[in-house]
Amino acid sequence: MSELGCQGNIGAQNEMVLVGGYMAKHFLRLIRKYIDEYVRCTDCKSLDTLIVKEEKTRLQYLRCNKCTAARTVSSIQSIYVAKKRGDRKKAKMAA
C-alpha cells in the first residue's frame, strides 16, 4: 500500500483491499518484483518454492521443491520501503 501510495487493509479472508488512486501497471510491477525475489526459483523458474529460516545463521533461504536449489533472500521489510508519490516523480526527473 505504501509503494502504491493508496490506503487499504487486509480483509476477513486474507484478501488485500486497496482504496484510492493507483495505476494497475504499478501494482503489477510490484507483484512481479515480489515474485522474482521471494517466489520464483532462479535456476528452474519453478514457483514451487518455500522460504526457510535457518535458526543457526538467522538467514532466510528460498528452497525450490522441484530442483532442490537454494539461495538466500533478504527480509521483505528491507526492500519494500514506503515512498511518497511526489518523491517518486522527483527521483525520475533527477535521473
**Main sheet properties:** 3 strands, antiparallel
Level of helix content?
Answer: 25-40%
Using the alpha-carbon principal axes, give the shape: elongated
Question: What number is the mean pLDDT?
Answer: 81
Please, how many helices? 3
- Structural class, please? alpha+beta
Following the backbone from N to C, one meets helices and strands in this order, namely EEHEEEHH
Please report the distance between the alpha carbons of the first and last residues.
25 Å
Number of strands: 5
Strand order of the largest sheet: 3-4-5
Unreliable parts: 90-95
Q: What is the fold-level CATH name, i.e. the topology?
A: Defensin A-like
Q: What's the level 1 CATH class?
A: Alpha Beta
Which architecture per CATH?
Answer: 2-Layer Sandwich
Strand content: 25-35%
- How many domains is the backbone divided into? 1
The radius of gyration computed from the alpha-carbon positions, rounded to a whole number of angstroms, is 16 Å
Describe the model.
- With 95 residues, this protein is of the alpha+beta class.
- The protein has a single domain (7-82), classed as Defensin A-like (2-Layer Sandwich), CATH 3.30.30.170.
- Helix content is 31%, strand content 25%.
- The protein is built from three helices and five strands.
- The chain has helices at 24-38, 76-79, 85-94, and strands spanning 7-10, 16-19, 49-54, 59-64, 70-73.
- The strands form two sheets. It has a three-stranded antiparallel sheet with strand order 3-4-5, with no helix packed on it. A two-stranded antiparallel sheet has the order 1-2.
- The longest helix has 15 residues, at 24-38.
